[in-house]
Amino acid sequence: MAVSPPVCDFDAPWHDFALRDTDGSVVTLPQVAGSRGTLVMFICNHCPYVRSILDRIVRDAHTLMDHGIGVVAISSNDVAAYPEDSPALMKDLAQRNGFRFPYLYDADQSVARVYGAECTPDFFGYSADGRLQYRGRLDASARTAAATDARRDLYLAMVQIAETGQGPRDQVASMGCSIKWKAA
């Protein structure tokens, strides 16, 4: 089922975390925060929305990192129900796609809950001082990728945040598969 999260709650603070990466090392928010802003992405391996744009996510993440923006990807899905999202397969996906950013596993789903993540992909763009300035889509892609010349909404928003500290006021929500929550 497709889910579309709410748009940006401007100036909401980011939330610290300490999660394991695909090599088992603990990574914290201060370790990934960029001097000009930080992008926290909730993604997963199995979601067709993520899979259709993964090459674009990696392209934009790497370009943003080159501009002083920190980037981190987090998977919070229940791996008992969705074994494709297991840490071992996360590591394989990250290696095959050349991730230069950490791909972290939120085993107890507490980070997704505190951020209010609702779907994959769900993008949270923060200013250098840790204030939310973007919660929107990567581009016009949905379950299938948009045209190759589609406006790069996330990339342009993060560049604006890096330059001005403020995100665009008009944002289009991301769309994707719901986070796969563990049974209560």
Automatic annotation (TrEMBL):
InterPro entries, per the entry: AhpC/TSA, PRX-like1, Thioredoxin-like_sf, Thioredoxin_domain
Residues covered by the Thioredoxin domain: 8-153
CDD domains reported for this sequence: PRX_like1 (cd02969)
Alphabetized SUPFAM superfamilies for the sequence: Thioredoxin-like
Protein name: Thioredoxin family protein
Gene Ontology MF: a single term: oxidoreductase activity
